[in-house]
Amino acid sequence: MKEQTIQLNLSPERKPKPQSEELGFGKIFTDHMFIMDYTEGQGWHDPRIVPYQPISLDPACMIFHYGQTVFEGLKAYLTEDNRVLLFRPQKNFERLNRSNERLCIPPVDEEFALEALKQLISVEKDWIPNAEGTSLYIRPFIISTEPFLGVAPSSRYKFMIILSPVGAYYKEGIHPVKILVESEFVRAVAGGTGEAKTAGNYASSLKAQEIADGKGYTQVLWLDGLEKKYIEEVGSMNVFFKINGEIVTPALNGSILEGVTRNSVIELLKSWDLPVTERRLAMEEIREAYKSGQLEEAFGTGTAAVISPIGELLWNDEKMIINEGTTGPIAKKLYSTITGIQNGKEQDPFNWTVEVEQYAATK
Amino acid sequence: MKEQTIQLNLSPERKPKPQSEELGFGKIFTDHMFIMDYTEGQGWHDPRIVPYQPISLDPACMIFHYGQTVFEGLKAYLTEDNRVLLFRPQKNFERLNRSNERLCIPPVDEEFALEALKQLISVEKDWIPNAEGTSLYIRPFIISTEPFLGVAPSSRYKFMIILSPVGAYYKEGIHPVKILVESEFVRAVAGGTGEAKTAGNYASSLKAQEIADGKGYTQVLWLDGLEKKYIEEVGSMNVFFKINGEIVTPALNGSILEGVTRNSVIELLKSWDLPVTERRLAMEEIREAYKSGQLEEAFGTGTAAVISPIGELLWNDEKMIINEGTTGPIAKKLYSTITGIQNGKEQDPFNWTVEVEQYAATK
Ligand SMILES: Cc1ncc(COP(=O)(O)O)c(C=O)c1O
Ligand SMILES: Cc1ncc(COP(=O)(O)O)c(C=O)c1O
């Protein structure tokens, strides 16, 4: 697979680039995309970079009926000296393959996928916005394309990468968000697909999200599906709490997505000699810490927002205002350190960033 | 909505019809499909019957990423006197709307959807196979089509109906199948999407199904996601057991799909004065009944197979052979009665069938 060369079919026309004020999240796409196909017996084949364009699929394709699909999300950043950095992209392709395994999708060659991503970004370098907090969002995904109405793994797939220049994910910016603790709906349960980045997990979250929206909350905090007692994660973030000096995040228990940002936060905190514990964490413990004044900070971690301080939690009818609704010092330091590493302004002691060279052929 | 007329754009070419021996399940599609679009602010619009063809979608369409989609499955049957019958189609469109509600998809007008289906079938009448056990499988489905990489309900959808002439679903025909009781993976849990007919439920089932396949079992029997003790349903069937004279099926608890066949079986059994109980049913109870010789019958119910007798259950390492691996008398009677009603050979005391008239405009 690694030997395959990526065909380049560049678009004669280029779309106008948006102003940085016009950037939202995931609405604008660049001029090109990467695509390769999988056929049973043949493996992944025909890798190519082509003009961004609609895909044409038989209405019986399995993706439309049985949701056999996985995706990833990461970002490319432009440094002040005009270099392009990716943040730990290998982790995303490793996770993609873990998701593939759960969804019975054939694995991709992780090195080749990264190479494809680099070439695509090299073609689209001019699309990376450079204003503070902006970046190029990267969406690799795989869909099952066999036209067959039977519940079985597909014999054909498409792997694609599309790119979207983005502004800040949360309208509130780095300001704290309000989160609703979900007591009725369930996102995932051990033995299900919660650990995988797959469409169904997000489809099932829409209803709770819609209700939270209506009440003025940004996202929901999921509790475990069994007892609805233990904290799992937020809609698209992992979550951390500082309780009486101890920083705690729910352990990876099989129903939580293993976030790349979560992992980076844990590494950083350790390197700062701040104790961080991965363990089971009951919502009741948070409530008691809150009551006794020991709930010092709470924040979410994810590619979109990087660090998202939590200023308020609503659990049933109980409202908990955290850190007087302001951003705490740990969230602040993590945010500036990680974004600093991502955009090349800070040292990168862990070698997290991967530079994208300019490929001669892509211009 | 009901006022809208359905545009007819008939194909100048017709594909050759398959021989009845060539019919599998869900691989061959007819010459036309029904499609209508939803746009926020405008509602469902542009209903049309067009040649069966690929659909062209932006790679950012939400269906590819967040799985906001629902589907249905029902069948049309050709009677000996050349009439076309649908089996309780209203129930499928009611269930479609219940699924829509759970997935935050705007409802469709159920009467209009049925009207659209009738017109489509009228166009495709020649595709309905007439050999014993064959039928025309009908797949209505809705996909979210807004090109947006944010987790939120889509502002655009497509509702489609495609048709596939099918033979018998199980290779084994009405013969008993072997079912593996799943102890590791979980399909659904209360608060999740188990009650809805949506893609993610099936994606999450692939892994367990693949393992069962490898061991020579046709499908898996799901236990509840909380304690893995109580019986839920089979991959694409509800399930009934006869224990010491009592016919039992798991009660609708929020994580089981409410099958149309399940409901029909319950009605029929009641009309025959056979006691049937909907209640919680532990796998351990089945095991004990088996040991004491009181497990008299077991069968699955679903549109594809209608009634599928279960000849063997494997739970952990324990093998239970039911009714000596043969089809029991109740399964047999239910099968012949329901298929008889469906193909017009038996009386239809409940008015379950709906006849599809020939529309003048469709020929
Ligand atoms: C459910 C869920 N949890 C957590 C995360 C955070 O993961 P990461 O830090 O890799 O972006 C995401 C993705 O962004 C997610 O979708
Ligand atoms: C999960 C599941 N359970 C049960 C059934 C049976 O439902 P019905 O009798 O309406 O076909 C189906 C669908 O066919 C199904 O997909």
From TrEMBL, chains A, B:
Pathway membership, UniProt: Amino-acid biosynthesis; L-isoleucine biosynthesis; L-isoleucine from 2-oxobutanoate: step 4/4; Amino-acid biosynthesis; L-leucine biosynthesis; L-leucine from 3-methyl-2-oxobutanoate: step 4/4; Amino-acid biosynthesis; L-valine biosynthesis; L-valine from pyruvate: step 4/4
Name by which UniProt lists this protein: Branched-chain-amino-acid aminotransferase
Keywords: Amino-acid biosynthesis, Aminotransferase, Branched-chain amino acid biosynthesis, Pyridoxal phosphate, Transferase
Transmembrane segments: none
PROSITE patterns: AA_TRANSFER_CLASS_4 (PS00770)
Stored InterPro entries: Aminotrans_IV, Aminotrans_IV_CS, Aminotransferase-like, B_amino_transII, BCAT-like_C, BCAT-like_N, BCAT_family
CDD domains listed in its UniProt record: BCAT_beta_family
Reaction equations catalysed: L-leucine + 2-oxoglutarate = 4-methyl-2-oxopentanoate + L-glutamate; L-isoleucine + 2-oxoglutarate = (S)-3-methyl-2-oxopentanoate + L-glutamate; L-valine + 2-oxoglutarate = 3-methyl-2-oxobutanoate + L-glutamate
EC code(s) of this entry: 2.6.1.42
Keyword Amino-acid biosynthesis: yes
Named cofactor requirement(s): pyridoxal 5'-phosphate
Any matching Pfam family: Aminotran_4
Region span, Disordered: 1-21
Modified residues (N6-(pyridoxal phosphate)lysine): K197
GO molecular function, one term: L-isoleucine-2-oxoglutarate transaminase activity
GO biological process assignments: isoleucine biosynthetic process; L-leucine biosynthetic process; L-valine biosynthetic process
Class of the enzyme per the UniProt entry, highest EC level: transferase
Family according to the record: Belongs to the class-IV pyridoxal-phosphate-dependent aminotransferase family.
Compositionally biased residues, Polar residues: 1-10
